[in-house]
Specification:
Shape: globular
Distance between the termini: 25 Å
Helix content: 40-55%
Number of helices: 11
Number of strands: 8
Largest sheet: 8 strands, mixed
Structural class: alpha/beta
């Protein structure tokens, strides 16, 4: 599946770098912002956008050093990534939006919700965490990329991202994600991985007061379901859903992900429909 045809990638300078983004869907519809994870770009959301763009204005950005976005020299932390989202909303004149982030995108989305909750209609946190149990593993990956580039991570990352059945049955989709991964700049990976390595924001979760959906992958080895449960338990009123997927649940199970998100969004009291 592909999103609405011919929607262009646009670049806009925000602060210290150019940021690439793409918009699909009706111009007068509510805005939903979709934020990808480390070693991906906005195209990781393509299968979901094919559903959401029927009724929503879907805004997707490329994180620093990913896709077509520029990359300020690292290090930069999770707050800088969160601030990029708010700056993009400001530049586009979007007062309030639904925000959904997966993996690293979910980590930075927590900070947007904690510090800028008034800008959000809802929050969705998919395949993500709020604290880092294995910082040493991330430091090892950073050192490997410094020495050998992002290609050195490709095979292991894809194994962590997807279930064995998906890897076997969907080789073209997996190849597409590999190509996206290989397009990530080493500096972009190092900056993003440094933010993931230093992740420690459990204390922020009780501050989140926007309607929240937590999406877990039942077979997610990168951010196991227990980490999603930890988030759901800490955010007041959060709802949780589990999909039969690995770490890239929105890519592996796009229809189920879209169904879960649409049911959540349409249940909100302020939903325009």
């Amino acid at each position: 599946m592909t999103p609405t045809a011919e929607s262009p990638v646009t670049r806009l300078r925000l602060g210290d770098a150019e940021h690439a983004f793409r918009i699909d869907g009706p111009a007068d519809a509510p805005v939903v912002v979709l934020v990808h994870g480390l070693l991906a770009d906005h195209r990781a959301w393509d299968p979901v956008v094919a559903r959401l763009a029927r009724d929503y204005r879907v805004l997707r950005n490329d994180l620093r050093g990913h896709g077509a976005s520029g990359c300020p020299p690292p290090p930069w932390g999770m707050q800088a990534l969160a601030d990029d989202i708010v700056a993009l909303l400001d530049a586009l004149g979007v007062e309030r939006a639904h925000l959904a982030g997966t993996s690293l995108g979910g980590m930075l989305a927590q900070r947007v919700a904690a510090f800028h909750g008034e800008r959000l209609l809802s929050l969705t946190l998919a395949n993500t965490a709020a604290a880092q149990p294995h910082p040493e593993a991330w430091q090892s990956r950073i050192e490997l990329v410094r020495q050998s580039g992002v290609a050195s991570l490709a095979d292991g990352t894809l194994q962590r991202w997807f279930t064995p059945g998906f890897l076997e049955s969907q080789p073209q989709a997996v190849a597409r994600m590999r190509a996206i991964l290989l397009g990530t700049s080493p500096e972009g990976y190092i900056g993003g991985a440094g933010a993931v390595r230093d992740l420690a924001q459990l204390d922020l979760l009780p501050r989140i007061r926007v309607p929240t959906l937590v999406v877990a992958g039942a077979r997610d080895e990168a951010t196991p379901p227990a980490l999603s449960q930890q988030i759901a338990d800490a955010i007041p009123g959060a709802r949780q859903v589990s999909l039969d997927a690995g770490h890239q649940s929105a890519f592996e199970r796009p229809d189920e992900f879209a169904d879960a998100w649409l049911a959540f969004a349409r249940s909100l009291p302020a939903h325009p429909a």
